Amino acid sequence: MSSYLERGARGRIPAIFDAGSFEEFLGPSARVVSPHLAQLDVPVSFDDGVVVGRGLLGGQRVFGAAQEGGFMGGAVGEVHGAKLVGMLGRAIDEGAQAVLLLLESGGVRLHEANAGLIAVSEVMRAILDVRAAGIPVIAAVGGANGCFGGMGIAARCANTVIMSEEGRLAMSGPEVIETANGVEEFDSKDRALVWRTTGGKHRYLLGDCQVLVADDTGAFRAAAIAAIEALTGAARSGAAALTLDALQAEQAMLERRIRDFGALAEPMDIWRQLGVPDPAGVSMLEADDFVAMAAGHRAGPVTGDR
Amino acid sequence: MDWQTLASKLFPGGHDIVEHDSFLSGSGQVDAGAGADAAARTVAVIGTTGHAPIGIEIALAQAQAVLRTVREHPGRAILILVDTQGQRLRHRDEMLGINSYMAHLGKCIDFARRQGHTVLGLVYDQALSGGFITSGLIADACFALPQATIRVMGLPAMARITKVPEDRLTELAMDNPVFAPGAENYLRMGGLQAIWEPGPGVESTDAAAISLPDASASSSASASASALASALAKALAQVEPTDRRMALGEARGGRHMAQAVAQAVRTGGDVRPA
């Protein structure tokens, strides 16, 4: 096992892509840094917290990005967002087989407030441009900072979301909710509650994450290859793009979710209602055992929004 | 400006927009000029009012309205009226996956665009972060009224989170569009295509229209009406479905690097300063 969570962006890329195959666009030697941080006396990073480029993944030509949680929590600023948008555009220009996004981000970089907000919306549109071009987009979430804010939305614009149990996927962070509405609303110090609410196992049971893996770079790599395989090839031609049928199925799934679980207050109550035999024991299960247990109990279409 | 006043000014030819729990939906008749056929003159309207927090229900209601428009009125333009305090900050929304509801709304709007529906956003009151990103900011182009409040968060909260003193942020916000809220700054950064001037005397007209619907008020209201109605008609005729915001931000001097960096990555070139 080689922990995905404990690696930074530059450690994940070579562990996920085929060895030695990844070529970075506008790497650190280009020294393209945020134009906004210096005036706030905040240190800059020569990659602005994101690696973008192209490589091989299981022999397929796959474009990719990895956000660096160690730099401002992976938050999206003007340059960071523009690198993602440029890579996504190039994936279309060069006819990539797929795009793999290793997401770890708090969302909009507040130090670049307005520029960060517009940038995240540009990333969302660029992801959907890639899908409209028939190229599948896979998002992986397994870093210590989770995937929040606008990037939590962007992740769900992908065809497939791969998470580890330790990965967290949501919109507003627990601290933000606690600050706004009090500790009774969401106790951000209650780590077990935070995990039950935003963690990979809950997202997998709800149907917002299509693949749940152990915190292991090999497992993420294998899941990414399998997801791309499932979305490409002659039989799946056009499967990456949005369709009215898929969106109507997603609409129905999200309506069902409110109807079935909208009155419940605790994620374990949702799991119980889904038929999970021992909700309190879910946190103890290893990834493989959890996936085996969850079979037949997951809400929503198993294939996500494809 | 309240949504009823706005709607009457945007659609002097009439509208059937209704409000349910802060969610707006319906359609309006655009003044598209002589010769336009009836279908081209009708615009679908979705939106929110009362600074609504965008929770999972209202996101889903908006998505439903977009999908219905795609199914029942192919090609009909969609206008998103934005007034929100941002995403709803509740444990229940997060537990049920509010990011998926927001993404679903964004995907529905994006799908409509690709099916040939022109999609416009209009911030007529307030727009904040998460509530804005899958409404106005995912439209083909977003517009705002001059008094609109647009921001990520207030400067005091930004100071607390970034650990940058509020005084420093306030000082920077005076001439740096990145930090300061407001329509003008989003225009400079390319986030807005244009600001729609409702015409002279709009504030007093609003007050008069609500409390004193006398003859002078209605005559100035109709003058304002034509300004917004023609801005809408013009936008519908001109807006393109490609994302031009980086180029606009560069040309207007509000975002110097985004366009150059994205181009350098896309073409394998160097970043040239704007």
Describe the structure.
The complex is a heterodimer of chains A (306) and B (274). With 306 residues, chain A is of the alpha/beta class. Chain A has a domain at 9-169 and 209-238: Alpha-Beta Complex (2-enoyl-CoA Hydratase, Chain A, domain 1). Chain A is globular. Helices cover 40% and strands 12% of the residues of chain A. Chain A has a seven-stranded mixed β-sheet, sandwiched between helices. Chain A has eleven helices and seven strands. Chain B is an alpha/beta fold and 274 residues long. Chain B has a domain at 3-146 and 196-241: 2-enoyl-CoA Hydratase, Chain A, domain 1 (Alpha-Beta Complex), CATH 3.90.226. Helices cover 47% and strands 17% of the residues of chain B. Chain B contains 13 helices and eleven strands. A seven-stranded mixed β-sheet of chain B has the order 1-2-3-5-7-9-11, sandwiched between helices. Chain B has a two-stranded parallel ribbon with strand order 4-6. Chain B has a two-stranded parallel ribbon with strand order 8-10. Chains A and B meet through helix 2, helix 3, helix 4, helix 5 and helix 7 of A and helix 3, helix 4, helix 5, helix 6 and helix 7 of B.
Topology, pairings included?
The complex is a heterodimer of chains A (306) and B (274).
Chain A: H1 9-16, E1 23-24, E2 50-57, E3 60-67, H2 78-93, E4 98-103, H3 113-132, E5 137-141, H4 149-155, E6 160-164, H5 174-181, H6 191-198, H7 200-206, E7 211-213, H8 217-231, H9 244-261, H10 267-273, H11 287-294
Helix pairs in contact in A: 2-3, 3-4, 6-7
Chain B: H1 3-10, E1 18-20, E2 23-29, H2 38-41, E3 42-48, E4 52-54, H3 56-72, E5 77-82, E6 84-87, H4 91-95, H5 98-114, E7 119-123, E8 126-128, H6 129-133, E9 141-144, E10 149-151, H7 155-162, H8 166-173, H9 183-188, E11 194-195, H10 202-211, H11 215-238, H12 245-251, H13 258-267
Helix pairs in contact in B: 1-11, 3-5, 10-11
